[in-house]
Amino acid sequence: MVCLEGAPGGGKSTLLSEFLGSLSGAVILQAAGDDAETLLSYGVIDQLQPGTVTEPGTDPMAAGQRLLELLDRRQADGQVVVLALDDLQWFDRPSSRAVLFALRRLRVDKVLAVVSTRVGGLDDPGWARFASGDSRATRLRLGGLSPGDLTELASALGLGVLSQRGASRLAAHTEGNALYCRALLDEIGIAALSAAGASSASGAAGAAGDRGLPAPRELSAVILARVAALPAATQSFLAAASVLGRRAPIPAIVSVAGLPDAQHEVDAAVAAGLLTEGASALELVFSHPLYRAAIYADLSPARRRELHARAAQVVEGRARLAHRTAAALGPDEALAGELQASARATAAAGDAAASAWALEQAAALSPSAQDREGRLLDAVVVLLNAADTPAATRVLASCQVASARRDALTGLLGVFTGSPSAEGHLLAAWQAHDPGTQAEIGARAATSLANWMVLAGRPDQALTWADRAVSRTVAGSALRAMARTAQAYAFAAASLSPQGLDTLGFLPASATEVPMPETDALIMRGMLKVYVDDLPGAIADLGVAAARLRTGLPSTYPGPCLAHLSEAYFRRGDWDAALTHAQLATALAQDTDRPLDLARGHARAAQVLAVRGQWSAAQAHVNAARAAAERFPLVVAVATAAMAAGWLAAARGDLTGVLAATEPVRATGLLGVGGHPGMFTWRGLEADALTGLGRLDDAETALREFEDAIPAAGLASATLTLARCRGNLAVARGDAAQAEAAFRRGHEIAADVPMPFEHALLSLDNGRRLRAAENRPPAVRRLEQAHQLFSSLGAEPYVQACVADLATLQVTATAGSPAALAGLSRAELAVARLVATGLTNREVASELFVSVKTVEYHLRNSYIKLDITSRRALAALLH
Prior knowledge:
Blueprint: E1 2-6, H1 12-21, E2 26-32, H2 43-48, H3 60-74, E3 80-86, H4 93-104, E4 111-118, H5 125-133, E5 138-141, H6 147-156, H7 164-174, H8 178-199, H9 203-208, H10 217-228, H11 232-244, E6 247-249, H12 250-257, H13 263-271, E7 275-277, E8 283-286, H14 289-297, H15 301-311, H16 317-327, H17 333-348, H18 352-364, H19 369-385, H20 389-397, H21 404-417, H22 422-432, H23 439-455, H24 459-471, H25 478-493, H26 497-503, H27 519-531, H28 535-550, H29 558-572, H30 575-592, H31 595-611, H32 615-631, H33 635-652, H34 655-668, H35 671-674, H36 683-692, H37 696-709, H38 716-733, H39 736-750, H40 756-772, H41 776-793, H42 796-808, H43 818-821, H44 826-836, H45 841-848, H46 852-866, H47 871-878
Parallel strand pairs: 1-4, 1-5, 2-3, 3-4
Antiparallel strand pairs: 6-8, 7-8
């Protein structure tokens, strides 16, 4: 027996129905309880044995015996019988006892009983003992839907893409209850869900002034009917509790409700199932967030303000300010000033959401239109600095007065979203600002223009605007750091990454010592280190920044941080970490609604999946990267999507597909940025495809362009790829001497390139050259080297290519890495590799964004599979 337990509306019946529909060749017997038939004696038994009337006075043992006979008959042909019993909590008592009697007596029968019930539905001691203590029984608890599940659900319903923030808000509001989630998705749509999630403030503010998401209409009607049946004093008590939030101390509720005491009211609310005791006997909690939402929403505006005013007298700190705000009747400059001061304090503490909320409330309470506009624009700055694009868009749309500052912020928003009007707004802001009194506006506009020019493939103009931005700032200021960050990016786009790193020289050498406010500059330094092949340095910088992001630190560049960290891990050969961070980058980009970041995240994921041979999943990410690039039609996004498609086509051996993938980048005519070897890796793919298709002259032209694009300061990874591609072209032309020289040069450079996949490609192509030249021993050696590297990476298509090449030399490929040979799963291998580097379980959990328990579970399984007992043995084996 499997006992499936869950909350009402949690999807138990749906899951049971889906399971039954998936069966073939089984005999299915079904029955379901009904709350209207709990007094109908043997109603459920009659469903299982239609036409057999069981008299109300029949002994349950006799009815159970008849059920056993039925189960025995249905097994006569050797078939499995599936007994599906839905909603056990509503079974009539005689049927419940009869079914339990029958199940207890099944020993060697081919019967699977699946029983669903609400949490707490096993109140019958006999059922509880059988479900919990019998070796034949398994209890499964059906939990709520996760934010990821809700994103999938919205898409499956054809509602569009629900942001991660909106999904998280919905999951918390409904505790993931499937029925309630579906109802709210239908009733208010994903736009309202995302907007509510984007504009939510701190817990204190949310409890006081943010009405948040409603309860589904049908559920609200049920809840409010239950409330209406209670005494008036209990209704007042519940109203006060709803104003104070999901949980509150009983004395505070009593005070806000204006009651002399609340002994009877507490008992009545708890008995009604609306409130439960909290962590202490003096605290009450709404049994479900939706109960609070329904009661709060039913209050009249006047009643709600009255209760908030009372609440402001019994709470402290920011919660008191929030309640005062919710109680306000109109403009109040004094209160607006307090909110503005609170916004500054919360922003300094890193709580961008609370800061933006306070500024919006201050704007609404401002008697002066000028103050209102200024506070709204302050909120936009906070939201943009925290990468909350949807909320920034909403607040900016409410600004009414044309100004240089509004143009500068509108342009900055356009840089993040790829709006064609961004450049025009930024130029207007630059031209309209007063250098004497509005230097900050000028610096912001120039900084944004520098970044825009990089994305648009105009690095020379980017450098010019970056210089102007720096000239408008004061040394040591936050604006100077922001301008220097943009200047470093412009240098990188102009193939001058070393100069860009010098520009960021104001940062401490150690990433952990970089001040929190300069995390954006730290992210940029990590990005540039990726571009110059400093993978350890890039991982150190971006890893620290990513850890700060996990703690909630606001950042302007969270997407680029995770995407470039993924790229650094990929190049270094840590593909599990690369995929993890690519998926995080994708989720974050969806949440922040930044299409370029979305293209980057999908492209990084496609890259890993393609070389692993997971082509269907890779294709989905390629398609998503292309769709994102269409929303952001600038060369950086175009090249990002093209690179993803190129990697997939190359892994499949589709040479024509490689050229089709890279053609959009060439069509832009902006190869200075779109074809930058440090930023993008499609040039080698293109050259090899041209060689493989026999277009040797075109391949030569492509390789000359590739060579010219390598930065003057040098780039070892690009030089290695160039040497390998030249070797392949020489082989195709029959020039053995030039081919040998090119591959020799490649192997010499490889020592300075810590990229195992590039090493493996070099050995594979050189092995094929040697095999064609009938130079068997070195050919075997190179191909085995390639096979070993590809095996350790999990690059299955390339592993199979090595196997085939070795087979032509009558050599059977040796086993891959010990971990792969032992059959570790991808998750186990990811944990094992990180543990082998010396990280603790907690550090591994943080790195992979999983729980410590999950790390312990995978590590234990790895030890068993590898027949080892220590971390030291694991490190030795994986080394």
